[in-house]
Amino acid sequence: MIYKQWNFVVLMVTLIFCWIGDSVAANSTATGTVFLDTNRNQVKDDNEKGLPGVRVSNGQDVVQTDANGQYSLAVSDDTILFVIKPRGFMTPIDKNRLPKFYYIHKPHGSPKGLKYAGTASTGPLPESIDFPLTEQIEPDTFKVLVFGDTQPRNMQEIEWLAHDVIEEVIGTEAVFGLSLGDLVGDDLNLFQPLNEVMATVGVPWYNVYGNHDMNRRATDDRYADETFERVYGPTCYSYDWGPVHFINIDNVHFLPDKTDNPPYFSEVGERQLTFIRNDLAFVPKDQLIVISMHIPLTEMRDVKKLMNLLGDRPHTLSLSAHTHIQRDDFIGAEHGWHSDDPHHHHNHATTSGSWWQGTLDEIGIPHTTMRDGAPNGYGIFTFSGNQYSIRFKAARRPANYQMNIWAPWEVASAETDKTDVLVNIFGGTKRSKVEFRLSESEEWQPMIYMPQKDPYFQALKERDEMYHLEQKMHTTLRETMKPLLKEDIELPQRGKRLLYGVPRSSHIWQAKLPADVRKGTHVIYVRTTDMFGQTFTGRRIIRVQ
Fold first, then answer.
1. Which residues pair with 135 in a beta bridge?
2. Roughly what angle, to the nearest 10 degrees, separates helices 270-280 and 303-310?
3. Residue 14: in which H helix or E strand, if any?
4. What confidence score (pLDDT) does residue 216 get?
């Protein structure tokens, strides 16, 4: 009996020690130094000093380095440590201009069986995980390039992205770029060629995680971002640039199943909310906070929790993409925002437009008009202190191309006051002022904000449908004639069929033409001033008979 009791005690002690050992292995403390890398070799040399007061995080806790630049943080066997870039300093960037501000600690590596490679085993926790920084000048006013959904599904679409958008922004005045998720269209092997193309812009590029950047064969949401992490680092992180504090978050929650198109929903989650809370504790109240995500704020299950963290701050902006339209929401109490001034959420235009669909133009690139009738393009954001402005830029179009005016070519003189003029202001919001006049001598008249289906997009879709039908008939004819031909006939590509639009474009204004317009040729002038005070003009010629 005593022997059995002793065996039981030995067994329990062994199990306790094993549990303690596993616990220590899984939850350890990482230490290191954030230092000024004067010779830019990314190694802390003996003569290089640590930087005090720099924030470092494990994705949840946030600490500041001490007087010697040192920090310590708890880590598990699945932790990404990162430095929060302070103003006036820069982290290293790799050959593809991706910021290297993090250290991945996964001693066992990513789970096996993922469709796309995750992180290999990183081995034991190093004695010191150091983060190099170099000094740079960051003025109060600066520009940032913002892309929504580049989303190439193959190398052909990466080529279109390169020629349609990237070539024109090489040499930009922007100090860095930001992509708002769906960097690729499910094929994560495209991260590398995409990054090589993006690197030609010549500025550092930060990236948000999107639903088409998921490793779709993962067994759990926790592992869906393993490939993204290997290439880009953490999916939730922050950095300062000039006087602005930027926070990028992952608001895509993956629901695994056995298909290649598993469902997902949108939320921030408690871990990221904890990071944001701890991060903001070090950010002055009057500083502009820019939070970037993939799925729009209004679609998140826990939007009110995020708004509560921002609610006492007078200067905030949030960005998303995902919808392949451009829309601006001014968030109030219905989403948990309780400040007197609404929170501005900008759902950004997509660089891929309508997923690289539509008929091909004269140089072989699809028009890929977005679902709201606006062209594909990108944003140029100007930050100045705690203020900002947004300017939309259509791909391969002049900078002043900011609207489409829809009016008939010919109007009967007795019908002018019954004839509608519709204007799609690509970057317009409810706060835009839109006016028109029929000649330069007339007074400006207000147009009415009236979201509706964009007629230009509808006409474009009908034309694309005809091209698609024509292509199908040609293919059928070719197959029928194939036995009679000595060699196969290769038909020219027309582009992918444009799928669908939205029932209401959120940036359309409407007005009637004046009555008693004299017969002849006239010019419709449209003028808009947006919420940032930027004024744009457009013109359309009509004939009155």
1. 89
2. 10
3. helix 2-26
4. 86
Instruction: Say if residue 426 is in the same domain as residue 484.
Output: no
- Within 8 A by CB and 6+ apart from 326, the residues are 347, 348, 349, 370, 372, 374, 392, 426, 427, 506, 507
The secondary element (H helix, E strand) that includes residue 400 is none
Give the pLDDT confidence of 257-274 residue by residue, as tens digits: 777 778 899 999 999 999
68 and 177 both lie in a single domain: no
Amino acid 497: pLDDT: 76
Q: Which of 83, 80, 74, 93 is nearest to 33 (CA)?
A: 83
Q: Which residues contact 8 (CB under 8 A, 6 or more apart)?
A: none
In this predicted structure, what is the pLDDT of residue 478? 61
226, 214 Cβ separation under 8 angstroms: no
pLDDT of 463 over the 60 cut? yes
- Which domain range does residue 443 map to? 403-453+501-544
Is residue 265 in a domain?
Answer: yes
The first and second tokens of residue 534, run together, are: 């930027």
Round to whole Å and give the CA distance between 78 and 191: 22
Q: Is residue 437 part of a domain?
A: yes
Residue 34 pLDDT: 98
Please name the helix (run of DSSP H) or strand (run of DSSP E) that holds residue 288, with its range, or none: strand 288-292
Digit-coded pLDDT (tens) for 14-45: 443 343 334 334 569 999 999 999 999 999 99
Collect all residues with Cβ–Cβ distance below 8 Å to 503 and sequence separation of at least 6: 453
Question: What length does the chain have?
Answer: 545
Reported as a single tens digit per residue, the pLDDT across 351-379 is 999 999 998 999 999 999 999 999 999 99
Confidence tier at 9 by pLDDT (50, 70, 90)? very low
With beta carbons less than 8 A apart as the criterion, state whether 311 and 335 touch. Answer: no
Residues 508, 385 share a domain = no
Q: Is 110 contained in some domain?
A: no
**How far is 190 from 22, CA to CA, in rounded Å?**
37
What's the whole-model pTM score?
A: 0.90
Cα–Cα distances (Å) from 7 to 11, 13, 120, 353, 521, in that order, read: 6, 10, 40, 70, 103
User: Into how many domains does the chain fold?
Assistant: 4
Q: In what order do the strands lie in the sheet with 327-331?
A: 237-241, 244-248, 288-292, 316-320, 343-347, 327-331
Classify strands 387-394 and 377-384 as parallel, antiparallel or unpaired: antiparallel
DSSP string spanning 109-127? -SPTT-SS--PPP--SPPS
Residue with tokens 């995980």: 129
118 part of a folded domain: no
